[in-house]
Design goal:
Elements: H1 6-19, H2 35-55, H3 58-62, E1 65-73, E2 79-80, H4 82-95, E3 97-112, E4 115-128, E5 131-145, E6 151-160
Length: 175
């Protein structure tokens, strides 16, 4: 009896086909992020914050935060959620008027078209019942763009700048 080489060859082909690994699929291309548009949205958020703060409008400022936002400001208890943020700012604005607010970002990062962060410095001038003072500090914020297309703060940390001397403060005597 003679064996046909076709049967073992066909069996080997079927076995090879069964064991073959599927061709690797190419990963989907990462979505293109319009960094300029994201940074413009973040800058607009910063400008709305300045306008609300100098107007003393705690409701307007609180509306710039996400519903579950967190705020850690030196000298205040931790604030969680928009309602507690609004209540804290109402108390602050009742005690002093912000006559000037400057927010100067030093670095703005865009991770996606709806997520970013920023670090920088700020300078506030207050009138607390006729006494004018200045506050210089540093900040870090997390921002996200909502389904409505508006950028909001999801996190804020702010603290006084320990290396900035109060302008007009007594200067040490020269030796």
């Amino acid at each position: 009896m003679t064996r046909s080489p076709v049967v073992p060859a066909a069996a080997l082909l079927l076995l090879a086909a069964a064991c073959a690994q599927p061709a690797p699929q190419q990963a989907a291309a990462a979505p293109v992020v319009d960094t300029a548009a994201a940074k413009a949205g973040m800058a607009a958020l910063r400008n709305r914050y300045i306008a609300g703060q100098t107007a003393g409008d705690a409701s307007a400022v609180a509306a710039l935060y996400t519903g579950d936002a967190a705020v850690d400001i030196y000298g205040l208890p931790r604030l969680r959620g928009r309602a507690s943020i609004e209540a804290a700012f109402k108390g602050d604005y009742a005690a002093r008027k912000y006559t000037m607010t400057e927010i100067m970002p030093t670095e703005t990062s865009v991770r996606t078209g709806a997520d970013g962060s920023e670090i920088g410095t700020y300078h506030d001038m207050h009138d607390a019942k006729g006494k004018v003072d200045h506050e210089w500090g540093r900040y870090l914020v997390g921002m996200s763009r909502g389904d409505d297309g508006q950028w909001r703060l999801s996190y804020l940390m702010a603290f006084p700048d320990s290396i900035k001397a109060e302008k007009g403060a007594a200067k040490p005597a020269k030796k």
